[in-house]
Amino acid sequence: MSKTIRIHQGLRHLTGDQPTVDVNGTTVGECLKEIVSRFPAMESKLFDKKGKLLNYIEIYVNAKTSYPEELAMPVKDGDELTIILMIAGG
Amino acid sequence: MLTDEELERYDRQIIQPQIGIKGQEKIKQARVLIAGAGGLGSPAAFYLSAAGVGTIGIVDHDVVELSNLNRQILHWDRDVGKAKAISATEKLKELNHGITVKTIKETITEATVSQILTDFDMVIDAMDNLPTRYLLNKAALEKNIPFFHGAVYGFEGRAMTIIPGETACLRCVYRGVLPEKKFPVLGTTPAVIGCIQATEAIKYMVGAGELLKNRLLIYDGLSMSFSELEVTRDPHCEHCGEQKGD
User: Fold this and answer.
1) Is A88 helix (H, G, I), strand (E, B) or coil?
2) pLDDT, tens only, B160-202
3) Which of B57, B95, B136, B160 has its CA 20 to 30 A from that of A4?
4) Partner-chain residue, chosen from B152, B223, B227, that has the shortest CB–CB distance to A87
5) Taking the model in full, what pTM does it have?
6) Which CATH class is domain B4-230?
7) Homologous superfamily of domain range A3-85
């Protein structure tokens, strides 16, 4: 059993239109690293040049925010991670 | 006190037990600021006016452009080049002559936001950028008035209701800023979200149902589904946390 990452609509073109991707990491950071290794174009959409999560990206685990732990937050099998891009249009 | 005309006009609302005559009177007494007369502000303003909200303020400093018309239904062909606040006021007064519409043709800045919110009981966040949304969020918290947030991008929309001292605020949820660029949007997306914001505001006025407290509602028009994320107050939030301003 693995963890599932729900991909935001705005990033799905980078995952071959897959709405979800299964990964095996044990932290949010490891899960995101795995997704980047499979879909390298995701890297610049999620991280800055120092490897920090961009400040307009939020990661939710089982519909709850991972902030402030974010990348360090532990995850377990069956968890669902959701990548949220900030939106502000009106 | 409702007039005979109002009793007839709002009859379909009043017959709902959650509203009744007392609720309709509360709607009439309400003073709502709609911040932004654009894609979100248009449906919110139309439905709040139609519902009989006694005082509606429309704040917007922009003028109507042709590219606004796919979604900003307060503005029509003839309004291109006109101030949005004025165009919006004209439509709302035509829709409902019994309400007061305040036209505020101003830019919301740190210097003006507090004054703009004066004399309003609640705010509909219908802006198109995060910095101004943050200013409104902070000012609404300071004035202890509810803030009905909505935002859209493409086929996606989000809504959340912020009650000062009780729920997470916008700054608890979003900490960064977005790079400024033109955002894509289908007109029906802000139509859905603006109507949700108006529904929340009316529910708040009359005390009906459950508000979107600590719940970020996400509408996905492509999969035609709604989902929710649970949001929590950040004790270190710079707008509503215990150490704000530190």
Assistant:
1) coil
2) 999 999 999 999 999 888 888 899 999 999 999 999 999 999 9
3) B160
4) B152
5) 0.96
6) alpha beta
7) Beta-grasp domain (3.10.20.30)
